[in-house]
Amino acid sequence: MQIIDGKKVASEIKLEISEKVQQIVAMGGRRPNLSAILVGHDGGSESYMMMKTRACEECGFESALIRMEPDVTQAELIAKIDELNKDESVDGFIIQLPLPKHIDEQAVIEAIDYRKDADGFHPINVGRMALGLPCFKPATPSGVMLLLERYGIATSGKHCVILGRSNIVGKPLANMLIQKAYPGNCTVTVCHSATPNIKELTLQADILISALGCPGFVTEDMVKEGAVVIDVGTTRVPDSTRERGWRLCGDVDYKNVSPHCSYITPVPGGVGPVTTVALMLNTLLAATNGHRE
Amino acid sequence: MQIIDGKKVASEIKLEISEKVQQIVAMGGRRPNLSAILVGHDGGSESYMMMKTRACEECGFESALIRMEPDVTQAELIAKIDELNKDESVDGFIIQLPLPKHIDEQAVIEAIDYRKDADGFHPINVGRMALGLPCFKPATPSGVMLLLERYGIATSGKHCVILGRSNIVGKPLANMLIQKAYPGNCTVTVCHSATPNIKELTLQADILISALGCPGFVTEDMVKEGAVVIDVGTTRVPDSTRERGWRLCGDVDYKNVSPHCSYITPVPGGVGPVTTVALMLNTLLAATNGHRE
C-alpha cells in the first residue's frame, strides 16, 4: 500500500511552475497575475484566500485580493468583474464562493470572461471539458487527475466508481475520466444518494473516488483488494483534543480501508493540497497561450 | 415485452407542438422559425434536411434552408451565421454536419449565438446541461429522454449502462441521466472501446442504452431479464433484397434480445423519429421564453 502524498506533489508542481515563471520573466515577459474577489468576511473563505495568496507567492505570480462588503449589490459585483475582464494585467481571476444569498451565483459566474475563468466554473469551460477540448478545469477534480498522473497510476480500461454528483467534483471528474486521454479512458460509474446498491458497485472499482462529504462512509467491506482509493471528502468534525475544536475528516475509514489499497490519499494531505496547485496551473495557462491556442 | 414506438411518440409530440403554435398565432404571435445552413450536396444530409423541413411544416413552424457550395470559406460561413444570429425573425438555426474538411467545425459551432443553438452543440449549452441548468439539449439524447418519459419508464435509482462516449450521444446522455430529475436520477455507467468487461457491466443494467454504431453488438447473453433496452445505433448495412441496396441496422440483436426486455426500441422506428422532434422542441423553447427565462 502506498500513501499518495498530496503535499509532496503540490510542492513539486509549484516548483515547476515557479521555474517556468522565472523563464518567462528572464525572456522579458511579465509574471502571471491571479486576482480574486472576496465578498464578506467568512472565516473559511478568508483562510482559503490566504492559502491561494501564499501559493501565488510560491509560484512567482502577482496576485491581488479585491474585497467587497457583504451588502454589495449584484450589479456592483458584476461591474467589478467587468473591470477585471478588461484589465490586461489580469490573466485569471476567481470569485470566492459562496456568495451572499441576495446574489445569483450562476449569473456572476457567467459574467466572467471564460478566457480568464481560473476556477473553470463558466459553462463554456464546463462544456469544453465535457467535449474534450482545451479549457480551464475546476480545481478539485484537476487535483485528483494530477495525483493519478504524478503517481503513474494506470487508468486506461480501469473501472472508476465515483461517489457523488456535485457540479464541482463528481460530475466534472466523470467527464474527465471518460475522455480518451491519460489520466482517463476509464469505464466510469457515478453513484449518488439515489443509488440503492452502492456497495455492490464500489466493490467493482479499480479506482474508487469518494466526494460525498460523509465522514467514514467508505468502509473496509466496500473496497476491492488492491483498489486505488481517492478521498475528496473534507468534513469538519468536532474534536475537543484539538485546540481549534475540530479536525478534517474524509469520506473513507482510512485506518481500516488503507491496508487493502494499492494507493490511497489521506485526509488531510491528499487531494486538498493539489487543488490550489490546479488553480495555479490554470493561471499559468491563461498567462501563456491561453486554452484556445 | 413492450415495443417502444418512436413514430407514435413523435406524432403525438408534433401534434402538441402544432397546437401550441396555433395558440401563439391566435394570440397575435408569430410562428417559430427554424433555419438551417446546408453546405454541399451530401445525400444523407439532403435527406435529413428534408425530414427536418417536413417536421417544421407539421409543427406549424416557418423554416428556411440556406444552401452554400462546398468550396465556401470558413469566413463566408461564419458571416452567414452572424447574419442569422442577428436576424430577429430567426428563433433557432442549425448547421448541418459534417462540414467540408477545410472548415473547422468547432469554430463554426462556437460562432452560433448559444441562444439560437437549436442543435445544442455550443459549449455553453453543453456546459449548462452538465450543470443541470436550462439549455438547448442535443437531439439524439433528448430523443432517448422523451421515449423514457412518454412510456413512463421508472429511472430513479436505476442502473443505466451506456455503451459509447461520443460527444453527441454517449457523453450528453450520461450527463442528462445523472441529474436529479425525471427522466434521470440514475446510477450511470459509461462503457466504451477501452472497457475490457462490457458484458459484466451490461448484465447489471436496468436500462441499457447502446450508441456504438456496431450492428448486432448487443447479444442476448449481455442483457438482464426485464431490462429496458434503447438502441441508438443506426448503421447502413448492405441488403440486396432492398431496392436502395441497404437497410438500417441497430446495435442490438433485436430478434434474440427483445424477448428478455421489459421495453425495447426497434431500429428503425425507435429513437430515430423522436430526434427530429427534440429539435422542434428546442425551436419552440427558443421562440417562447428561451432557455434563460
Task: List key phrases describing it.
6-stranded parallel β-sheet; 293 residues; Rossmann fold; globular; 3-stranded parallel β-sheet; alpha/beta; homodimer; 10 helices
Give a concise summary.
2 copies of one chain form a homodimer. Chain A is an alpha/beta fold and 293 residues long.
If you had to describe this structure to a student in words, what would you say it looks like?
2 copies of one chain form a homodimer. By secondary structure, chain A is an alpha/beta fold. Chain A folds into 2 domains: 28-113, Leucine Dehydrogenase, chain A, domain 1 (Rossmann fold, 3-Layer(aba) Sandwich); 139-273, Rossmann fold (3-Layer(aba) Sandwich). The first copy, chain A, has helices spanning 6-26, 43-59, 74-86, 105-111, 123-130, 139-150, 170-177, 198-202, 254-257, 271-287; strands spanning 2-3, 33-39, 62-68, 92-95, 159-163, 187-191, 207-210, 227-231, 235-238, 246-249, 261-264. In chain A, the strands form 3 sheets. Chain A has a 6-stranded parallel sheet with strand order 1-11-8-7-5-6. Chain A starts with a strand and ends in a 6-residue tail after the last helix. Chain A binds chain B through residues 106, 122-133, 156-157, 159, 165, 167, 171-172, 174-175, 178, 180, 185-192, 194-197, 201, and chain B through 106, 122-133, 156-157, 159, 165, 167, 171-172, 174-175, 178, 180, 185-192, 194-197, 201. Strand 6 of chain A pairs antiparallel with strand 6 (187-191) of chain B.
